[in-house]
Amino acid sequence: MSQETESEQSIIRELPPEISNKIAAGEVIQRPSSVVKELLDNAIDAGADHLKIVIQNAGRTLIQVVDNGSGMGKEDIRLCFEQHATSKIQDVDDLFKVRTLGFRGEAMASIASVSQVTLKTKRPGDEMGWKYEIWGGEEKSFEPAAVESGTSVAVRNLFYNVRARRQFLKTDATEFRHILKTVQQAALANPDLGFEMIADTDTIYDLPKEQNIKERITDMFGKSYKASLIYFREETSYLTVYGVLADPKLTKRSRGEQFLFVNGRPIQHRYLTHIILNIYDAWTGEKDYPFYAIFLDIDPKQVDVNVHPAKEEVKFEDERSVIKLTKSVVKKALHEEFMVPDVSDRNDEENSFSSKGFSSDFNFGGSKNKQRNRGEKEPVKFPSRINFDRPKSQKGDQNNFSKQLYDFDKTEKKEQNESEEDNRPQRMRDRGFWQLHDRYILTQTRSGLCMIDQHAAHKRIIFEKALSATEAAIPSTQQLLFAQTMDFSASEFSLLEELHPIIQRMGFNIQLMSGNTAMISGVPADIDVGDEQSVLKSMLQQYRALDGKFEFDERRKLAIAFASKTAIPKGKKLTDLEMENLLDQLFACDEPYKDPLNKPTLEYIPLEDIEARFR
């Protein structure tokens, strides 16, 4: 068979560059934040000491990074958009001593293949700079230009030529949060560099250069962090571990402020994160997430940074030693600051998995307890208001169970005189209401036993009220005696801006001000006085935790977040009257049998099932 015949029959073809670059872009450029990360890496590697990031429409319309670094000459401009072209790797050995952030030479080629890129650059010693435009991998123009020293890369209309990828992007709020996290990582890893970030018309960050890590954190996340930061540093011949841990009181109900770096590179390390969170468990609850920024400096030969397409993961040569030393240093720093009993793992750390990604049990002087005795602390204050306005009418079509519950005593008269009403708690005990471990309400029905989860039930009630409030023409608001100002982090304020119209309809009266500040002058009636700021911040955190996990609209997610924060907690003692009113309001709901996330609010055990257990 001739060579020509074999070629005609071949089913394997070499892909043209325009297709292969788009495939590579799918690995490297997953969303707008991926572009931001690659451009920031290049700017930092170029020796810049000031970086400006400009974002429009959460990166869909424009992502621009301007730096005052070394710039490029004419001969390097086209090369930087070639696949696998880099100034940072010369031979195979260089892969094992990488100190720079970018090194693969894939980023610019991938970005250019799925967007419209305009690059302007000039070296400090050159009289004239250059402007280069490349759209979808195709060169549009290349000409001299009068530009400042350094490099400006503007990426417009990301994924304009790959519509399917553009459709898979999340909401603007979600994409912006990813961008913000990327900028935060770069700014924390480089407190000596100045960072300016502008989103649409708002200045998010304006961070001066030559800051220390505590100053950088305070400027980025708010003044409330200033007095809560613990600096630590331990050096060994193999590894240096340093950074900042936050006071365990400074926790949030969602992830997002846990930062881990290796040789200045932000990384994800699932098991190391699990270890750090488990150390904090001695002071916090399982669903509380503290702030920390931990830096590991290690010989590049001891770590492989080339194991992930987006360079988000690394592999240590001696994983066990890195984890053991980091754990020891973090535990020591927290122990010395707070003077609490040492925490030791019940089981070997490598065999333990938990709700924060893994799990573990801790032993305090032989007693098994995941959380420190908190009797010495002030109890957390939750709103406990159960509205004493009985529902106007109970749902007649829920099913026979609610009728059994409310019609238990058929001999009870529908109309009561005033003296009987005064004896209401006794009547409730006659009907059979009990609170079990201050968590569950038990009551007998004609044919069995009903167990109600008080927290889940109240969540359903508040959720439906909040959802209904957003549809009302005039929000129901209780005005505060004195308006309160609140400072937010950049990500919180951005989310507050996006959700502001819905939050207002729920009954909040909030005025957005400059500098990530808002003023609260009114709140919904379900919020206890003094809890306004805590509830609002927790709502935003809970909303963020729900975002991306459930296919709910913004209004529903916000109502769930509000209900989760303001519902009576498990462990709250209820009066007889509160229990009765809770059940009245639950069965007046449209969906009384499930909480907003479809978990059961109550369980029913038939009498015959109970009798069967005694046979």
Fourth CATH level, the homologous superfamily of the largest domain = Histidine kinase-like ATPase, C-terminal domain
As a whole number of angstroms, the C-alpha radius of gyration is 30 Å
CATH class of the largest domain: Alpha Beta
Shape: globular
In the CATH classification, which architecture of the largest domain applies? 2-Layer Sandwich
The structural class is: alpha+beta
Cα distance spanning the termini: 85 Å
Largest sheet, in brief, is: 8 strands, mixed
Range of helix content: 25-40%
How much is the average pLDDT? 78
Strand fraction band?
15-25%
The number of distinct β-strands equals 27
Unreliable runs: 88-92, 340-385, 388-400, 406-429
Order of strands side by side in the largest beta sheet?
Answer: 5-4-3-6-2-1-7-8
Domains (count): 3
Tell me about this structure.
The chain has 615 residues and is α+β, with helices and mostly antiparallel strands. The chain folds into three domains: 195 residues, Heat Shock Protein 90 (2-Layer Sandwich); 125 residues, Ribosomal Protein S5, domain 2 (2-Layer Sandwich), CATH 3.30.230; 135 residues, MutL, C-terminal domain, regulatory subdomain (Ribosomal Protein S8, Chain: A, domain 1), CATH 3.30.1370. A hairpin with a 2-residue loop joins strand 7 and strand 8. The N and C termini lie far apart (85 Å). About 14% of the residues have low confidence.
Quick structural overview:
Belongs to the DNA mismatch repair MutL/HexB family. The chain is an alpha+beta fold and 615 residues long.
